[in-house]
């Protein structure tokens, strides 16, 4: 499969690959079926747009954008059911076409924040839960969904700065895979909640808890990143 994907990218053929079972959410299928390194490996292929939406709304927006762009793309979906984000409470999914957008601000009025929580796919809802806990501690956390790195890096410097202000050094990335692609985004003071080893065989909810993909762990990472950023 990788050979076909690579050749499609090399020739810039308008092929869309749709992959499911994207993480440890496979649970009982075990580590042989949990592609912890695949997202990083696919992002390393030049000319391929890798898209990992957070919910059904992002899927539809991203699918339309993939078709209109007519370039090689991979649409990465989960095995487990994901909650549909309440778009009356959070930002509309239309900005997913820009690769990354603010789902929820730390402070909706001032847009100020203490830390950026940046996630893809099934982990966006975890970041949103962490934001609520941090708010109770008077910590303003901005949640960013980044379904497609490639689309985001095509945007203007002004838009990239609007979404991820450089002055905010405290950052946490949340993705159920290896962290290799994330370090250029989270910087020196950021913390990656990731999976740097193969998974295990158990229920998805148990694995997410065991490997640290919980709101509480995101809160702890955000607290530590803020501490690092503030010296």
From TrEMBL:
GO biological process: pentose-phosphate shunt
Record-listed E.C. numbers: 2.2.1.1
PROSITE patterns reported for this sequence: TRANSKETOLASE_2 (PS00802)
InterPro entries: THDP-binding, Transketo_C/PFOR_II, Transketolase-like_C_2, Transketolase-like_Pyr-bd, Transketolase_BS, Transketolase_fam
MF (Gene Ontology): metal ion binding; transketolase activity
Keywords carried by this UniProt record: Magnesium, Metal-binding, Thiamine pyrophosphate, Transferase
Residue span(s) of domain Transketolase-like pyrimidine-binding: 2-83
Domain Transketolase-like C-terminal intervals: 99-214
Pfam families, A to Z: Transket_pyr, Transketolase_C_1
GO cellular component, one term: cytosol
Cofactor(s) essential for the protein: thiamine diphosphate; Mg(2+)
Family membership: Belongs to the transketolase family.
Subunit note: Homodimer.
Protein name: transketolase
Organism per entry: freshwater metagenome
């Amino acid at each position: 499969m990788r050979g076909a994907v690579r050749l499609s990218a090399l020739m810039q053929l308008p092929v869309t690959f749709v992959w499911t079972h994207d993480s440890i959410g496979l649970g009982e299928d075990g580590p042989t079926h949990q592609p912890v390194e695949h997202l990083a490996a696919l992002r390393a292929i030049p000319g391929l747009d890798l898209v990992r939406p957070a919910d059904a709304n992002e899927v539809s927006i991203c699918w339309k954008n993939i078709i209109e762009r007519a370039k090689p793309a991979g649409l990465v979906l989960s095995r487990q059911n994901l909650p549909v984000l309440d778009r009356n409470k959070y930002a509309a999914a239309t900005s997913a076409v820009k690769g990354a957008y603010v789902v929820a601000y730390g402070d909706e009025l001032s847009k100020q924040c203490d830390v950026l929580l940046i996630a893809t796919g099934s982990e966006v809802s975890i970041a949103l839960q962490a934001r609520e806990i941090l708010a109770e501690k008077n910590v303003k956390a901005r949640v960013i969904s980044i379904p497609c790195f490639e689309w985001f890096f095509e945007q203007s410097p002004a838009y990239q700065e609007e979404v991820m202000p450089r002055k905010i050094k405290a950052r946490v990335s949340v993705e159920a895979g290896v962290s290799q692609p994330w370090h250029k985004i989270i910087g020196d003071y950021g913390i990656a909640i990731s999976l740097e080893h193969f998974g295990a065989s158990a229920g998805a909810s148990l694995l997410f808890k065991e490997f640290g993909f919980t709101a509480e762990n995101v809160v702890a990472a955000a607290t530590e990143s803020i501490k690092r950023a503030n010296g």
